[in-house]
Amino acid sequence: MSTIKLSVVVCVYNEEENIKPQIQRIAEALEGYEYEMVFVDDGSKDNTLKELYSVEHPRLRVVELKKNYGQSLALMAGIDYAQGEYIATMDGDLQNDPSDLPRMLKIAEEEGFDMVAGNRANRQDGMVLRKIPSRIANYIIRSTTDVHLKDYGCALKVLKADLAKDLGLYGELHRFVPVLAHLEGARLTQVDVKHHARQFGKSKYGLSRTFKVISDLLLMLFFKKYMQKPMHLFGNAGVILFVSGLLINLYLLVLKLMGEDIWGRPLIILGMMLLFGGIQFITIGIVVEIQMRTYFESQQKKPYKVRRVKGF
Hints:
Low-confidence stretches: none
Mean pLDDT: 81
Distance between the termini: 13 Å
Order of helices and strands: EHEHEHEHEHEHHEHHHE
Strand order of the largest sheet: 7-5-6-4-1-2-3-8
Number of strands: 8
Structural class: alpha/beta
Helix content: 40-55%
Number of helices: 10
């Protein structure tokens, strides 16, 4: 059996009309390559699974998840089952173009990059709901993580298999694959790729994901700067809070000595409650995230369950 050069992982959720055209486009783009297509159904409620199982293609593999776990865990499942030397990821909505994959694979092989990411140079999406929020998010991620890519949201990527399998895509961290790869010491580059307007189905993205992106960005900053030295984060914050509280108490003591009544000032009480509440939530989120990773990785458990696998 020939060695599989490229595994194309496609996560789909309610994309019944896009399945057969997507498979055909991938097959045409990779003709002459040793490749496989790994389609992960993330608990679709329409006829997506029926369409996948109706296609008889020797290079098609289907991973059917028991329920909807979200894009990150679906992507993790596809990567876990992929058998290629390189792993390509792409959306299942026909907006990414598989014809870009041979060029991206060639760059990764010949120039020694661990990951080649796509940049949607001529993005075919709505300006207000998609482009503007994406540009703002890209700027924030680029300036805070020091990973300088133009487009973090493009799903079209080619990665070395060993890198892809070590990323740890828990939660909803699929948006931060370049940052996770950078944390692993990977060599990254980005190339312009084609992008098409959606023809069938509805987009799964919207403004509601903004708060999730911000939360995940805080987690990425923690992993990048403080994973091995958390006291530098919590210690500094503790000192700042302690000094601030001390100054406030000294101020109130001076007022008390001057004969003023300082008991029960609502703004001080409210400010302290909000301050400590915010710190507690952020801290608990980070601690729980680390505990979840430790739980799954120490016991070699997967945070998803597969109902059926075809073609492997």
